[in-house]
Write a structure and sequence with these properties.
2 copies of one chain form a homodimer. The first copy, chain A, is α/β, with parallel strands linked by helices. Chain A is built from 9 helices and 9 strands. In chain A, α2 runs parallel beside α9. The first copy, chain A, starts with a strand and ends in a 5-residue tail after the last helix.
Chain lengths: 282, 282
């Protein structure tokens, strides 16, 4: 698998790159960004995945996420994928919350989405193999986080892959797409009407069905206009309590859904991941 | 003078705002951003001015500058103005380095620029009065910094206003517009052919003519493609040495001209300003 360099900039003593490649899963060109912190030659570093929210690409967090200082301090590679397949031949929808920019980290089964909308397999299988091949990554030490739709992605991918991630966190995640309008539209459109197929893409349902996380950090702004109708943090809180998952869920007064919120708590999340990733043998 | 709120987001415990107002100096609507860190009610806080480079508005540093964590830690208000007059009736040029987005912090004397291109008076007089009126600012404690064209602005404004700024720094500044193509085009266009008028807008010339700074911090990337032809850091280094200005000028290996460079050293600049600003009586 070959990678094309879109850009490479020195930052915080490391290298912030943007890369492009032909994806077998999504059947088109995909872009993602990778920050590699300063490190000794030959070292293999832990990897933190960041999954972005609706309408985003890799660029939003890369420009506004304020993660590099913390990743440089803790020696962590930060990978930010795109949020959907891209390209002129990829089916789309005029809405911001469906189609391009809104892949919801599922493998679609319905027409016209099924051929390209394979973001689950892309994020779970294809991209990790590419990262392992091209970067100084220790794939035995991975953490995962994300924002909003990407928080949903981080939680569900971690829940479906026990043992793969030493650390899991989220910023303002959609905790139960089965119980909110964004999720009903996306899961119904990509997966069809049978809600049994949705449960593998719903963090609360996965926990109810027995999936577990080692522990969990979530930050959620109380001034976030999507909290009550779409994000529904209390459902995750209740599911974790019921399942005995030690979850640190912090409701942050005054914060909204923007990157001003994410960047305010990013360094704490990176530190939280670093503490767990650096406990595993390097 | 009234201010219109464009946006206000909680960030790093403080408030990141974007504001709009009718400017008497530029004769149109101007936007700028202000970060107010968390503080005790009634407190007056030091102010750090950040002047942006060619093609930028307040938005670039506000989104990519990574200044808020440091400003919150040190209790500093961060103000980011625009780089030129704006509006449909404002003269412009197709080039990126002249006209809108390229005001060079001068008061233009030449047609068709003179009516609106009054960024010197806007930054030195009008905007500080507005900031003093609307924010919890201690105007006895001001620092100034900037990037590229904005580094030129920061240096020249500080040199022309002795005693106003307790702290001065710059990221990859244009140190002598009289000695580079960007500067010749801009100063010639805005001020006319008489180079005597240019000297008040040239940091190296101002120092040669007797202006002084308390001290100075400059970071400059060695992988910056504009260094040799446009920025010419060694000219500033020589002028400071000759004049006895204690200047810390750091040539940073591997860094380019982008916000990846700026954000890498922003926290160090904010700390450097804070050390000086917080020495003055609060």
């Amino acid at each position: 698998m070959t990678l094309e360099q879109v850009s490479l900039n020195q930052a915080h003593g490391g290298q912030q790159g943007v890369w492009r490649h032909q994806s077998a899963e999504t059947g088109g060109t995909m872009s993602f960004s990778v920050f590699v912190p300063p490190h000794e030659e030959g070292a293999r570093l832990p990897v933190l995945w960041y999954l972005s929210g609706l309408t985003c690409t890799h660029a939003n967090v890369t420009e506004k996420g304020e993660f590099r200082a913390a990743c440089a301090r803790h020696g962590i590679i930060f990978v930010a994928p795109d949020t959907s397949p891209r390209g002129e031949d990829v089916a789309d929808d005029d809405a911001y919350d469906f189609g391009k920019g809104a892949g919801f980290y599922v493998d679609a089964t319905q027409a016209p989405w099924a051929p390209h909308y394979r973001m689950r397999s892309y994020i779970e299988q294809e991209l990790p193999a590419l990262v392992a091949q091209h970067f100084p990554a220790d794939m035995a030490r991975q953490g995962i986080t994300g924002h909003s739709m990407g928080g949903h992605g981080a939680l569900t991918i971690a829940l479906r892959n026990p043992g793969r991630f030493a650390s899991v966190s989220a910023f303002a995640p959609i905790v139960s797409p089965m119980q909110c309008p964004w999720g009903h539209k996306a899961l119904g459109g990509y997966l069809g009407d049978d809600q049994a197929a949705w449960r593998g893409y719903d963090a609360v349902a996965l926990i109810e069905d027995g999936a577990r996380l080692p522990d969990l950090l979530v930050d959620q702004g109380l001034a976030d206009g999507f909290l009550a109708e779409q994000l529904k943090t209390p459902l995750l809180e209740a599911a974790c309590r019921e399942a005995g998952i030690p979850a640190t869920i912090r409701m942050q007064a005054g914060y909204d859904h923007s990157y001003y919120f994410i960047s305010s708590f990013m360094a704490q999340h990176v530190k939280w991941h670093a503490q767990r990733l650096n406990q595993r043998a390097g």
